[in-house]
Design brief:
29% of the residues lie in helices and 13% in strands. The protein is built from five helices and five strands, in the order βαβαβαβαβα. Bound molecules: flavin mononucleotide (FMN). The site of flavin mononucleotide has 22 residues, from α1 and α2.
Length: 188
């Protein structure tokens, strides 16, 4: 199994300014998670991202939601890679089969995905573009064979229009994920 490469610094937020200005990626969740309603929404093809999503759910007490593509991806790696490449090249927006029940209730949404061709699977952008994230905090995380999360952060920010993004994690290592959750003030 391929594993991630640690937590990467993403975006342009300065370490000295945790309260990011509009458009910038924040270093921390402003005020932490206390008193906030939290969702972990994720997709996972081979289980790595699912494990991280479930760890985040356990550590934060969040609700969890599996983002289900309308057309499931083939179990065969080569076939999946070919479809994912075509969708990425076409900047496609494949349909999502399910919807979050009352997204309005959530203040903070963790969004998790495997890196596919340097980005999130394209239907994850469909997911992000289906909701109004104005006033919400979005925290991306991914697992990867080595490509860092940074390449997908700008796209996530564009798709989750109006959200405050917080710097993501691209690690599959539970200890690194725990440290990242502390660093971004998701847990104390
Ligand atoms: C279709 C496809 C495309 C991938 N593209 C990349 C890539 O561009 N860079 C990379 O480092 N890993 C890539 N990988 C590896 C996955 O990002 C990595 O194995 C990830 O942990 C899988 O997460 P999952 O088990 O939640 O599906 C790709 C895997 C698949 C199936």
């Amino acid at each position: 199994m391929l594993v991630g490469c640690g937590v990467s610094e993403s975006g342009s937020a300065s370490a000295a300014a945790p309260q990011a200005k509009a458009g910038a990626i924040a270093d921390t969740i402003d005020g932490g998670l206390q008193g906030k309603k939290v969702l972990v929404a994720y997709y996972s093809w081979s289980g790595n991202t699912k494990a991280v999503a479930e760890q985040i759910q356990r550590e934060t007490g969040a609700d969890i939601f599996f983002i289900q593509p309308q057309t499931p991806y083939p179990g065969d790696y080569r076939e999946c890679v070919d479809i994912a490449k075509k969708e990425m090249n076409e900047n496609a927006r494949p349909a999502v089969a399910n919807t979050v029940d009352n997204m309005d209730q959530y203040d903070v949404v963790f969004v998790g995905y495997p890196i596919w061709w340097g980005k999130a699977p394209m239907f994850v952008y469909t997911f992000l573009e289906s909701y109004n994230f104005q006033g919400k905090t979005v925290v991306p995380f991914c697992t990867t064979g080595g490509t860092p999360i940074s390449g997908s952060m700008a796209d996530a920010q564009k798709s989750a229009a109006g959200a405050q993004l917080v710097r993501g994690s691209d690690s599959s290592d539970p200890a690194a994920v725990s440290k990242w959750l502390k660093d971004i003030h998701a847990v104390q």
